[in-house]
Amino acid sequence: MNTSSPRLQNRARIAPAPDTMRFPSTDIRQHTIIIPPTEPNRTYQGLKTSENDDMNCVEILATTLSIILMVLTFPISVFICFKVVSEYERAVIFRMGRLRSGGARGPGVFFVLPCVDDYCKVDLRTVSFDVPPQEVLSKDSVTVTVDAVVYYRISDPLKSVIQVSNYSHSTRLLAATTLRNVLGTRNLSELLTERETISHTMQMSLDEATDPWGVKVERVEIKDVSLPTALQRAMAAEAEAAREARAKVIAAEGEMKSSRALKEASEIISSSPSALQLRYLQTLVNISAEKNSTIIFPLPMELLSPFISAGHNHCNSHKPQ
């Protein structure tokens, strides 16, 4: 056989080499469905979304069938495809498990494909809950029981749905642990007198921790601080002792002032015989005004003058120079 003919030479040039030939029946790559991974660079408000990625054949088929079903069941499908969101709500929509771009829907009406789209409503109103009583060991090793109330709301509906499984339960648990951690750094006196400062510290700490969840902690209030019975009795006894001590100090100061005033009055009276005589007469008048059976014989002042002068000289001799 002559292989040098032009026709055979053209066939030899057109045919590919054996090692580069691809046979459809044996090429595994042609029968493999490649699912594109989620690209971390596709984000919406800090959240990953892959809605704009290439859908695989299963997703395309499901979406097509959903549209056909919606068209065939029109207008009944209108009641299924259109949803209403209230003013205080937002709806987060997923299509085939992928977060849809455009953010949360609402308020108003939005459209979903049956059997393909799924949505979750989020309430934006402020919610309050009571933190169960927590036994806290203060900085000065005193065990107290404290309870509080927390007010929060949803600031980012997307984060509250995607970043945490149950934002309400997680916020409650975090509030209890934060209450113990914050109060554990304070003394007993601070717990009783600085409630407003402690509440503000708790609010800032909770708000910072729940921000990745799309939760905004608006306010934290400490309701009650319960002390052990023995400690309450000890504090009551201490307060009673402090009150008695202050009363004794006040009484002693009053006696000191009164004795000082009496001393000054006695010095003035002793230095003036006429004042002493006037005081003597006032005393007699006061005694006679009382209705009693006592008979008083006044003693003349002339008989008492030697004793008064001796006492006056004695006081002058003891005065500091």
UniProtKB/TrEMBL annotation:
<protein>
    <submittedName>
        <fullName>Band 7 protein AGAP004871 isoform X1</fullName>
    </submittedName>
</protein>
<dbReference type="GO" id="GO:0005886">
    <property type="term" value="C:plasma membrane"/>
</dbReference>
<dbReference type="InterPro" id="IPR001107">
    <property type="entry name" value="Band_7"/>
</dbReference>
<comment type="similarity">
    <text>Belongs to the band 7/mec-2 family.</text>
</comment>
<dbReference type="InterPro" id="IPR043202">
    <property type="entry name" value="Band-7_stomatin-like"/>
</dbReference>
<dbReference type="Pfam" id="PF01145">
    <property type="entry name" value="Band_7"/>
</dbReference>
<dbReference type="InterPro" id="IPR018080">
    <property type="entry name" value="Band_7/stomatin-like_CS"/>
</dbReference>
<feature type="transmembrane region" description="Helical">
    <location>
        <begin position="60"/>
        <end position="85"/>
    </location>
</feature>
<keyword id="KW-1133">Transmembrane helix</keyword>
<feature type="domain" description="Band 7">
    <location>
        <begin position="80"/>
        <end position="239"/>
    </location>
</feature>
<dbReference type="InterPro" id="IPR001972">
    <property type="entry name" value="Stomatin_HflK_fam"/>
</dbReference>
<dbReference type="InterPro" id="IPR036013">
    <property type="entry name" value="Band_7/SPFH_dom_sf"/>
</dbReference>
<keyword id="KW-0812">Transmembrane</keyword>
<keyword id="KW-0472">Membrane</keyword>
